[in-house]
Structure formats: C-alpha cells, structure tokens
Amino acid sequence: MSRSEEDAGPGGPRWALVLGASSGTGAAIAEAVAQQPGLDVFGVHRGRYVDSGERMEHAVREAGRRAVPWQADASTPEAAEAGVEALRKVAGPRSVKLFVHSIAGASVGHFLSEGEDRLHARRIRRTFDTMAHSFVYWAQALVAADMLAPEARLLGLQNVLDGTHLSNTGLVSASKAALEMYVQHLAMELGPLGHRVNLLKFGTVMTPALKHVYSPEALARLEAAHARMNPAGRMCTVEEVARFVSVLAGEDAAWFNGATIDFSGGMTLKLLDLVLNA
C-alpha cells in the first residue's frame, strides 16, 4: 500500500492546507501546526521566497510530518480547483483538518486620486480576489472534492484596519470586511456539518514582505511606533500568531464559529492617548 493510500480517509493522518506557506505568517503557521496538533502540510505559494519556503519544509519534516509544496497564484477559482485536486492525490478524501488563508496582495492608494496611486478597477478586482474571494473559492473546492476531515477548521486572517484606518488602505479594509462576511456565512453553512470557520485578527508582525517594502530605517521607526502603541511595549511575532493557530486547531477551541478572534494584544487601545498626549 502506498503512503498516499495509508493517509487517505478518516483513519489516516490529517493535513493542513496553508495558502501563503512559504514565508511570514503562513510559514510560521505551517511549522507550528506540524508540531501541534501534528498535521502534514500542503503549502501553496507563489515561489517568491524560495529560501524561507525551503526552511519551512525542513521544519515540518523535522517535526516528523510531510511537507508538500504547490506553486501557484492561489487567488483564482481555477487555482483552487487544481490545488485541491493535487492535494487529493497526495492525501486522499476527507483529510484536511485545517485550512488557513494567509495570502496577501492588496493595492494601497486612494479611490479618487488622479495620480499613480489611484485604485482603478483592475486593482480593486485583484485585491478582492486575493484577500477575500479566494477564501470562498478554496472552501468551495474543498467541499466539492469531499476533502474536509470531520470537524475541520477553516481560518481567515484579519488585521486591525476594521476598527482604525490608514488613509491609503481603504481597499485593504474593504476586502477584509468582505472576508469577514464570507467567514460568517460559511460558518452558518458548514456548522451543521461539524466544521468551524473563523477569522483571526492580529496586529503588525515583521515578515519578509514588510522588510521588502520598507528600508531598515523605516522598519526601525515602525518598530519604535509599535512599541509606544502596544500595551506590551513591542510588536507581536509571527511565532506567537502561529502558536495560537495551533490552539484554534485543537479540541479546546471547537466552539468558536463565525467569530473574529482578537489577537491584537490591544494594539489600538492607546491611539487616542498617543495623539492627544504625545
């Protein structure tokens, strides 16, 4: 019997399907859930962070679990169907215990700008496909292929821009609002089947993408600002987020459903105080 046959079906090992698994939060989550609760990882990524992707795969295998990379732009319905089919060939049906949507690709700018930062239709469609619609595409593909294990967990990721805003992130906020509604409605549809769908909100974390966008000097200012803003006096880490995802994948978190879980550490609590008393 092949390994894939041994893994197939309700009695075999469970899998985590992680979108954006090659770097940052997605990679940290893949490594954490391989440790606890001990899931094999099917990691979807666009191939931009080869070194960190290889480190993630090594860490998963060091934990005694399987790591299967799959390179694609995960934002389209066609990619979702192809990715789920590739996973099914490896893992067998009803094998996905955890699905994590950790891909990003938002445009920043202004809706009414006449300059290069204008949020035109193509940028709007692309951002919503990446940040929101793709969560539905992959959920639909998983259900259609009968890939969800009993009591599976589906998890989207949220930021603090639902409660406070930056002037050039209106499209990010709008797409994340759509994602929140998708999570709630999918929770209603999948809840009777025993599955749970939630949204995890956390603050700024240091990732390769962030380091790519900002200079070292800008990153230093960013960290200093978060040290003043966060009650804990520092930024959250991707490892902290990942460890909490392991908790959400466990039995003790089984009653969360349709929830936006605040893991921001009170990041925005002091904003008014900082503005008025700085």
Automatic annotation (TrEMBL):
Record bears the keyword Oxidoreductase: yes
InterPro entries the UniProt entry points to: NAD(P)-bd_dom_sf, SDR_DHRS6-like, SDR_fam
SUPFAM superfamilies linked: NAD(P)-binding Rossmann-fold domains
Keyword Oxidoreductase: yes
Origin: domain of life: Bacteria
Keywords, alphabetical: Oxidoreductase
Family: Belongs to the short-chain dehydrogenases/reductases (SDR) family.
Protein name as catalogued: SDR family oxidoreductase
Organism whose genome encodes this protein: Pyxidicoccus parkwayensis
Native organism taxonomy: Bacteria, Pseudomonadati, Myxococcota, Myxococcia, Myxococcales
